[in-house]
Write a structure and sequence with these properties.
Shape: globular
CATH topology of the largest domain: Rna Polymerase Sigma Factor, Chain: A
Radius of gyration: 16 Å
Number of domains: 2
Length: 167
């Protein structure tokens, strides 16, 4: 087994729950998200020679996973990832208020919020996945936090409810 295969398998073992949780918000259920994760890692293993190493391996796998999720939703995979997905809480009944406020965010902001708080990616990884700059990630998160705080009537610009909903 080559090193890259072991590394991909390690990412799978460590981050399966994060992938499944975030992708459930995109495809609408945890069951379908499981299938997306399986297919994504299978594709990553199959095309591991295509990984150029110009960014984190995990970000490359996330990009594959988002494309697979998009395909499973039956939409063309050539649309820009940042504007294509409209993630939502897979179990909105856990916090209906937060779910409603998240729906008010633009698809780009919602995706970046999900990748940060549900998938737990850092700014660099989000930038790689979404093909945007780290500065755009920071600005998008700041705008999303401000919008969420205003809608949730919070004095704290980083609502604790967002972190709880992601867990």
């Amino acid at each position: 087994m080559d090193r890259q295969t072991r590394t991909i398998e390690d990412v799978y073992r460590r981050r399966y729950q994060s992938f499944r949780g975030a992708l459930a918000g995109i495809v609408g259920s945890y069951e379908l998200a499981h299938d997306v994760v399986q297919e994504s890692f299978a594709r990553a293993l199959k095309s591991r020679a295509d990984f150029r190493g110009d960014g984190p391996l995990e970000a490359w796998i996330w990009k594959i996973a988002l494309r697979v999720a998009f395909e499973m939703r039956g939409q063309a995979s050539q649309v820009e990832l940042v504007d294509a997905f409209e993630p939502e809480l897979p179990q909105p009944e856990r916090d209906e208020g937060l779910a409603a406020v998240l729906e008010e965010l633009s698809p780009r902001r919602r995706l970046v919020v999900f990748l940060r708080y549900v998938a737990d990616l850092d700014y660099r990884e989000i930038a790689r996945v979404c093909e945007i700059s780290e500065g755009t990630v920071a600005a998008t998160l700041a705008q999303a936090k401000a919008a969420l705080a205003a809608s949730l009537d919070c004095s704290n610009p980083e609502p604790c409810e967002l972190r709880e909903a992601a867990e």
